Amino acid sequence: MQRPRTALTIAGSDPTGGAGFQADLRTFHSMGVYGLSVPAVLTAQNTEGVHCVHELTADFVSEQMEVLLRDIRPDAVKTGMLYSSDTIQVIASKVGEYSLDRLVIDPVTVSSTGVMLVEEKGVEIIRDVLFPLAKVITPNIYEAGVFTGMEIISPDDMKGAAIKLKDLGPETVIITGGHLKDKAIDMLFDGEEFVFIENERLEGEFHGTGCVFSASITAGLALGYNAKEAFIKAKDFTYNAMRDSISVGIGMKLLYF
Ligand code: PXL
């Protein structure tokens, strides 16, 4: 049998498995990609929300990456919730040291229930240190707002924000607009064209859509698709997983696939 493609997630732990590296691993597996994971931070949470965050040391995150990457070269890599500035810095160093080029940055800043998932100065460091290394960044409209200082409420605002975000160094910007008022529209900008994909809005509160979406883009890149092809596949994968979502707890629905 041929060696399967591999993808690495460097992200937070979510015990519900709805988000975090657990959701990333399920996504990789479901798309036929072998998943590797480096936990960057732990959380105590359930389907009602995040209770608290427990940091790992940046040194230990660095050690996990070093030992893994010395042995296995992943075909693509994503980052999710990283929380600490020091951790973000060491991840950027390892990405450089090992020339990891199919890198997806999901710039996780705040949970759907409003809990901060990055420390304050981490926002700047993600922007200045990680974005320039990225093949794809996948902010939602709130995150795109945090990184550009813009308020994003329409597809035209998404275009304006994407142009600003592209100037920060990533090859491709994908803004997810699942939180727009009337429509669910996602948009890709690669410096040349804007690609919009619109879906009907699904009713309900979903947990982990951003993680599953960025993980499915990462799996697509690992499989050899370009960013636009990976975007189209990821949108489909995430939409189907939302349509099939389950209520296993008393709070938000979890994507099922
Ligand atoms: O959906 C963003 C996210 C990412 N990673 C972890 C999370 C959350 C949201 O709660 O807990 C670990």
N- to C-terminal separation?
A: 25 Å
- Globular, elongated, flat, extended or rod-shaped: what is the shape? globular
What CATH architecture would you give?
Answer: 3-Layer(aba) Sandwich
Q: Overall pLDDT, averaged?
A: 96
What fraction strand?
15-25%
Question: In which range does the helix fraction lie?
Answer: 25-40%
Strand order of the largest sheet: 3-2-1-4-5-6-7-8-9
Counted up, domains total 1
Cα radius of gyration in angstroms:
17 Å
Query: How would a textbook summarize the main sheet?
Result: 9 strands, mixed
CATH topology heading = UDP-N-acetylmuramoyl-L-alanine:D-glutamate ligase
Number of helices: 8
CATH superfamily: Ribokinase
> Any idea of the CATH class?
Alpha Beta
Helix-strand category? alpha/beta
What are the distinct ligands in this entry?
A: 3-hydroxy-5-(hydroxymethyl)-2-methylisonicotinaldehyde
- Work out the number of β strands: 11
Low-confidence stretches: none
